[in-house]
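Following up on my earlier thread - several people asked me to post the actual chain instead of describing it. Fair enough. Here it is, all 462 residues.
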Amino acid sequence: MHVSSPENCDVDILENGRTIKDVIDSKITELGSMDNEEPFYVANLDSVYKRHLRWLTNLPRVKPFYAVKCNNTAAVLRMMSALDTGFDCASKGEIQMALSLGASPDKIIYAHTTKPPSHIKYACAHGVDMMTFDSEDELLKMSRCHAKAKLVLRIAVDDSKSLLKLSSKFGARLVSVGKLLERAAELGLEVIGVSFHVGSGCTGGSTFKQAIADARRVFDINLLGFQMRLLDIGGGFSAIGDFQEKFEEFSEVINGALDEFFPPDSGVQIIAEPGRYYVESAFTLAANVIAKRVVIDDMDEHSDGEENSPGRMMMYYLNDGVFGSLSCIIFDPAHSNYEPYLHRVAESSERRYRSVIWGPTCDSSDKVIDNYWIPELRVGDWLLIDNMGAYSVSATSDFNSFERAHIYPVVTAETWHLLKTRERNARSCQRKGGACGWQSSTRNYEGKICLVRSRSSHLATP
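Reply from S.P.:
Thanks for posting it. Predicted structure:
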């Protein structure tokens, strides 16, 4: 069953026992019948929904503002809107995306400390007031472009235990906080809180505790009467691979630190900017082997120059690579859990060869994986790569004009019907004048639910 979102994004409803594997199989068969071998994703929206429930269970005080930069797929953004999250936006374009979903401007944080003046003016014109800063120059820019902004001071924190570090580029040092707050007061600007980001792929839970303690110091430094009421603990959360169990471990540390430094009766709202956490495991990429080359290693002492010799190395060329969906190989050190595997079933007796897998472009840096031991592939074979939801779709280019991977969102009938039920409950709550927004438990949570619009049921956008 297919339904369409308001953005005309088809969503496949999995019914009668159909699985993600069934969808991948049928898409490969369908593309083959059309002589089309373009790459594609299958996006499992159930995974996104389950991650949300896991977040509510483990971080009940922390409202997520989804990081649009991580994956700006229409179906993902619609799902996040349906779950009543906020949105972390880094540009005018991302703000436009969030607003187009019907997101309230007060549920958007413009979380970039170096903003073009025209983008600030756009945010101002559309009621997006909450935004970050970390320098005096940015304060001057705000005073000219958005004097009524609600500013969040981003501080640099220890990110030495993270795979992807950010504090070398963003964040004010604690020693400069007093001067920045003083300058904000001189300019008549309003500072409402503090933000930080420990980096992606953080391996030490104590890093979060120290960062929250540092944020508390900033609140205490505030001697100028700012009504500081917001703490943004940033993003970088993960829950795959080595981080599968760490999310609960880190959540326990975060909750303890929040209770110590920002107890519930402090009046401080806690938000975060998760992106990777929600979508990393939801996307599977399917790429086609479009070319093949056998290389005889004449430096191998066992090589006899024949193609079946031990010195034979295989080179395969996919229709997607580092200039497309796999740019994360180069730019995202926190993305280490990718491993292509063959879609068709290989015989256990098949010999494995040392292989290199390349992307399709003319650039020799377009290498997907090296020294990879796999059975011999054929042109037309499909390779699958799991955990491809983070910083893949949103970071692709059109280099050499190769097609970007198409996206096929799917959701189970169970989750689909649950979402529709919650939408009805939310609308009923709104009609009665009740509070239908963010709640701190899964039992009471009733967000605005409108993932997709069925042609038969005509679900409307909230």
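The first helix runs from residue 20 to 33. That should answer part of your original question.
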